[in-house]
Design goal:
The chain is of the alpha/beta class. It is built from ten helices and seven strands. The chain has helices at residues 20-25, 41-44, 53-60, 77-92, 113-118, 175-192, 222-240, 247-250, 269-277, 286-301, and strands at 27-28, 34-39, 66-71, 150-155, 201-206, 244-245, 334-335. The strands form two sheets. The protein has a five-stranded parallel β-sheet, sandwiched between helices. Helix 7 (222-240) links the parallel strand 5 (201-206) and strand 6. Helix 3 (53-60) crosses helix 10 (286-301), helix 4 runs parallel beside helix 6 and helix 6 runs parallel beside helix 7 (222-240). The longest helix has 19 residues, at 222-240. It starts with 19 loop residues before the first helix and ends in an 18-residue tail after the last strand. Residues 100-112, 118-127, 129-145 and 306-319 have low confidence and may be disordered.
Length: 353
């Protein structure tokens, strides 16, 4: 491994430009959609500094999505599954879900805060665009895409894949249980909300990223163990019909420029990514955070499968790593009218639904 390798600074995070017409008029009074990131220390640390991948998402989706970090260092899918009902109650509101009942749920027809707060949010988002002509509410398009109000990204596996006889064996979860836990969490999230509004909630998975076996050999092995968990995560995504971000493979590739060219040549990058992306063999450098941010954004902004919001657990079609959630930052409306569109004399008129 080269000792004189120079690690570049990550590129600046910017919001893609849109036309002035769209920027001014593509706004909404509806509740701001939420992007909830649920995972381990790689997620938690994504908000701990200015170059964190979660921080970068907050910058990119500023005023369009509220990015909520629920990463907990050291957690695996077993502990995440046990914790998930508390997170869902905090974000989605109370439900009659009984953790002891596994995936069974009674009285699902009862209303909860999702139904009360967001009953029409997704279905009417295409009409939430304003013009300052006579301060009247006017749609600029009737064919704008719908989008979920709550998007959960599940990012576990780095701890599940610890060696069962290694120094971090306490965090190890067998591969079969890891797979089952991911499925249970997906189903729990989809079943928590009102059954007649499945399009309000969407879910995606992130595979565990690669690790540097040479550095963390006492607790992890990238090729023979972590890779298996990453592949199983992709299999679960296909079975449950949810998008997957393939971090394990993607984070062994160079940073991409805006023109889709790599900062580095692919040749001989097999060693360089370990230096560029990993600070301690597992956690991410600023450049590693940027690469993860790139991969997550690619999935979020790709068009979604027609059955992405299938409420029956995702058996209607095949989902793969080339499918996303359709959350294009250039198509999501900014919340509340632009200051230039607010009625200066009677501002309350600009904030009536």
């Amino acid at each position: 491994m080269p000792s004189d390798h120079l690690i570049m600074d990550p590129p600046a995070v910017a919001i893609p430009p849109v036309s002035s017409e769209i920027y001014l008029r593509h706004t909404t009074l509806r509740p701001r959609p939420k992007l909830i990131l649920f995972g381990d220390s790689i997620t938690e640390q994504g908000s701990s500094h200015a170059n964190g991948w979660v921080t970068s998402l907050s910058i990119r989706y500023n005023r369009r999505l509220d990015v909520v970090n629920r990463g907990m260092n050291g957690y695996n899918t077993r502990w995440g599954k046990a914790c998930l009902p508390l997170i869902l109650e905090e974000i989605l509101g109370p439900s009659d879900w009984n953790v002891g009942d596994g995936l069974e749920q009674n009285g699902r027809g009862q209303s909860n805060s999702i139904e009360q707060n967001d009953r029409n949010s997704a279905s009417s988002c295409a009409n939430d665009h304003y013009s300052n002509e006579n301060q009247q509410q006017q749609p600029i398009s009737t064919e704008l895409p719908l989008y979920p109000q709550y998007t959960f990204l599940i990012a576990f596996g780095a701890n599940d894949s610890c060696l069962p006889n290694g120094t971090c064996s306490r965090h190890h979860v067998p591969l079969s249980e890891y797979s089952s836990n991911l499925k249970d969490m997906i189903q729990m999230i989809k079943s928590w909300g009102h059954p007649f509004s499945p399009d309000l909630v969407s879910v995606a998975l992130l595979t565990p990223p690669p690790c540097n076996t040479q550095v963390v050999s006492t607790s992890r092995h990238n090729e023979s163990v972590t890779n298996l968990y990453a592949r199983e995560c992709i299999n679960v995504g296909e079975e449950m019909n949810v998008p997957v971000v393939d971090l394990w493979n993607g984070m062994q590739l160079p940073i991409e420029k805006d023109d889709d060219e790599s900062v580095y040549n692919l040749e001989d990058y097999g060693v360089t990514w370990k230096l560029d992306y990993l600070s301690d063999g597992l956690h991410l450098t600023p450049l590693g955070n940027y690469k993860m941010f790139q991969l997550v954004v690619q999935m979020l902004e790709k068009p979604m499968h027609s059955s992405s919001f299938d409420s029956n657990g995702g058996t209607a079609g095949s989902m793969n790593i080339h499918v996303g959630l359709g959350l294009s930052v250039t198509q999501l409306p900014r919340q509340y009218p632009d200051h230039s569109m607010v009625d200066a004399e009677y501002p309350e008129n600009s904030f009536r639904m």
